[in-house]
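thread: overnight batch results

M.L. [08:02]
morning all. the overnight job finished for the chain we discussed friday. pasting input first so we're all looking at the same thing
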Amino acid sequence: MFTPVTRARQHGRDGRSALLLAAALAVAVPGILVSACSGQSGASAAGGGDAVTAAGRAATAGRTALASRRPEAVRAVRLLSQAAQAAIVTSYQGQEVATRWSEGGGSVLVSSVWHVSGGQTVTQTMDPGASLSSEPYLSSDTDSQAPEGVLGVTAPLVQLLESHYVVAYAGTGSADNRTAQVVEAWRADGSIAARFWLDDATKLPLERVVFDTAAHVISQDVFVDVSFSPGASPQQAAPASARVSAGSRGPWTDPLSRHQLLALRHHGWVVPSELPGSLSLFTGAETQAAAGTVLDFGYSDGLSVVSVFEQHGNLPDKMPGWRKTKIGSHAVFVAEPDQRSLTWSGHGTVYTVVADAPAQTIDAVVGALPHDGPTGFWKRMSRGITRLASWANPFH
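M.L. [08:03]
and the structure it wrote out:
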């Protein structure tokens, strides 16, 4: 039987967004416990009191010619790259607040974050189902070579964003009562995909809003109550309740190269190079648990991020904290209350998908991965045929 494994997620080690798997913070995902920084609505979105330029306001209205934004792409990419670097070199603390909306409602998670320039990050996320905070997470990145980003802005994800979207500079605005530079990402069909607010002084990301193809907001991530405290380590700046030791880090490998990840196919693992939604394989790692090897594959298009965990074994029929449901024709368990963590058994492997992505993308990803067939039906048919044969055979 599959044995759930718990770990503190080294999301700094693979360059994945700290907001990557916001909804998974309060649940032990089979094969893994994923830690993330997340949030609630807090900073101002475009419009209203935000002084976004005419180009930014036109973006909200819908679709404008992509060609008119291409000349601003170089400036936009430069700003986003500076934002990714700012997450490394700037000492700061604040609250990351992530809000997600779907047809079934919305969810909010809030994390306190402390980071020291060129060093570690401590995050402590409020468990939405409890009055006390969950266990704090200590970044494993002590040398600043694979840092955690703020609001999904890391160097690898900026590269993916540039390759999947048209990015453009959209003028100035404000977030968390600070002047900000605004950068937008546009789809090839001319629809707005996302908007970023970057602190004018430090370039640290302060807000990110993601839109669906109809320009409806589906997520908003903000970094609020930000302060800059050079010289103080996160362990010193964080309150005692959020201080953790380096020994709390999980025993995960450094990120494997794409070649190493794809080579795992020869050892019986399922490693798609791409998943639905234009999600490209860009990182991965492995660890050894009591029940065997656990693999973690990261996929993204620069905005949406999906983690796929694999471990050989099978799930029990019932799991506390998880609800059995169907996605398409496939039976899966979904974690309560986040709805963004799903797990199932398929061909002797347990798959766990934890995603910060639109619902349709999550559904397509789940459908693209292996599942056991309708064995229950055929087993029942087999038993029925056997009974019929026994009735027809008087010598049985």
